């Protein structure tokens, strides 16, 4: 079926088959019989370089347990443009890194008037990424489709 569509499209439009997708919008794609791996390792390295964190010491978690932030945190004000650029870069990275989604969502609340405390928490996310550059999402290929949802708070499975 796919080959028929591809042949029809090739006849109708000027196009070339360049094979399996390997890179798209900063997302690296590796396809195999078992499934598809996606990652943003190159983009993560670019972020670490842009914000001078390539030589930082990695940490095991993206945010410390019990971290609570507010608009009126102690510390000097940080350039909002710099902070927005950093948080925006991290938000795009969450497409393939759901492990940082909560912490990026937390710091993104303070883009209007960030302080050094907010920046410190955000840079911890970068330090976590430094130690987890090789993390990828895997979508297994299967003939059997099963959609499953889980709510951690209630312990319900759908």
Structure description:
The chain is α+β, with helices and mostly antiparallel strands and 158 residues long. The chain has one domain (2-146). The protein contains five helices and six strands. It has helices at 2-12, 41-50, 80-93, 101-107, 116-131; strands at 23-24, 27-31, 35-39, 137-140, 150-151, 156-157. The chain has a four-stranded antiparallel sheet. It has a two-stranded antiparallel ribbon with strand order 5-6. Strand 1 (23-24) and strand 2 form a beta hairpin. Residues 1-64 form the Reverse transcriptase Ty1/copia-type domain. Pfam families: RVT_2 (PF07727). It comes from Cucumis melo var. makuwa. InterPro entries: RVT_2 (IPR013103). This is Putative mitochondrial protein.
Summarize the entry for a quick read.
With 158 residues, the chain is an alpha+beta fold. 37% of the residues lie in helices and 13% in strands. Strands 1-2-3-4 form a four-stranded antiparallel β-sheet. Strands 5-6 form a two-stranded antiparallel sheet.
SSE blueprint and pairings:
Elements: H1 2-12, E1 23-24, E2 27-31, E3 35-39, H2 41-50, H3 80-93, H4 101-107, H5 116-131, E4 137-140, E5 150-151, E6 156-157
Antiparallel strand pairs: 1-2, 2-3, 3-4, 5-6
């Amino acid at each position: 079926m796919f080959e028929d569509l591809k042949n029809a499209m090739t006849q109708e439009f000027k196009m070339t088959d360049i094979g399996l997708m390997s890179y798209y919008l900063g997302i690296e794609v590796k396809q195999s019989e078992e499934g598809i791996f996606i990652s943003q390792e190159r983009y993560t390295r670019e972020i670490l370089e842009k914000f001078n964190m390539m030589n930082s010491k990695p940490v095991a978690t993206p945010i410390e347990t019990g971290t609570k932030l507010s608009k009126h945190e102690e510390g000097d004000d940080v350039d909002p443009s710099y902070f927005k650029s950093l948080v925006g870069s991290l938000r795009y990275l969450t497409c393939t890194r759901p492990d940082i989604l909560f912490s990026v969502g937390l710091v993104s609340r303070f883009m209007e008037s960030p302080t050094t405390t907010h920046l410190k928490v955000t840079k911890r996310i970068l330090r976590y990424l430094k130690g987890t550059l090789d993390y990828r999402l895997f979508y297994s290929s299967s003939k059997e489709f099963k959609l499953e949802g889980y709510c951690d708070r209630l312990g319900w499975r759908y």
